[in-house]
Design a protein that fits this description.
Strand order of the largest sheet: 3-2-1-4-5
Structural class: alpha/beta
Largest sheet: 5 strands, parallel
Bound molecules: NADP nicotinamide-adenine-dinucleotide phosphate
CATH superfamily: NAD(P)-binding Rossmann-like Domain
Shape: elongated
Radius of gyration: 19 Å
CATH architecture: 3-Layer(aba) Sandwich
Number of helices: 5
Number of strands: 7
Strand content: 15-25%
Helix content: 25-40%
CATH class: Alpha Beta
Length: about 200
């Protein structure tokens, strides 16, 4: 009997692994579900929203993908080595390898409503999650990244809406351009960034 002319295509990220921080809701949930739909085995992290993380995992599994949730408070950079060790073990169990193909540094906290609400502690927490944690996540990822692996850092160049509302608009020549990968992204839902509310 002759061979078929074509083989069914496997999803583009089949056999790949991804770690998505802040996958319990919002943009991180959308990224995690999309990567899983493309075939990746996805580790997603949460802090306060454990139930949200479980919902993301359930959504992935309903569509036939593979994901698991890990807890880490990224204000504490010391949680990062343990996070990776847990991810290593689960990737190895699920895929036979603990190599990492994609690190998506997405977790972010809103910080404060406006300049007058900021405190030294909230300032420290915001920078811990948005700047310090991605730095040490990359440090831990380096020895695990597969050939052709990728790190994606998501951030924001804009202050929160309440702060924006109270700020005078700078002249056009001094307005900053987007510096984050999703610098102009809208709110996200499990269906995709930019629609509905997170
Ligand atoms: N939405 C936008 O319009 C927009 C625009 C530009 C850039 N961004 C950037 O895109 C990223 C995602 O935004 P989003 O709107 O999807 O945010 P979001 O809905 O507020 O979700 C934030 C995620 O980060 C996690 N997170 C917060 N604090 C954490 C901590 N201490 N330790 C670990 N995880 C923590 C949350 O986990 P838990 O809920 O489990 O704590 C949650 O999964 C952020 O980096 C943000 O700056 C967003």
């Amino acid at each position: 009997m002759s061979q078929p002319m074509y083989q069914p295509m496997s999803p583009p990220l089949s056999g790949k692994t991804a770690l998505v921080t802040g996958g319990s809701r919002g943009i991180g949930r959308s990224i995690a579900t999309r990567l899983a739909r493309e075939g990746a085995t996805v580790a997603l992290t949460c802090n306060a929203s454990r139930r949200g993380a479980e919902e993301t995992v359930a959504a992935v599994e309903r569509s036939g993908g593979s994901a698991f949730a890990l807890h880490a408070d990224l204000v504490d950079a010391k949680s990062i080595p343990d996070l990776f060790e847990q991810a290593d073990r689960e990737f190895l169990r699920r895929t036979g390898s603990d190599a990492l193909d994609l690190l998506i540094n997405n977790a972010g906290n809103a910080g404060w409503g406006g300049l007058m609400d900021a405190t030294p502690d909230s300032w420290d927490e915001m920078f811990a999650v948005h700047a310090r944690a991605p730095f040490f996540l990359v440090q831990s990822a380096l020895s695990r990244l597969a050939d052709g692996g990728r790190v994606v850092n998501i951030s924001s160049a804009l202050p929160p809406p309440a702060a924006r509302a109270s700020m005078p608009a700078p002249p056009a020549s001094r307005r900053p351009g987007p510096t984050g990968v999703l610098g102009s992204a809208g709110r996200a839902t499990p269906e995709g960034p930019g629609s509905g509310t997170a």
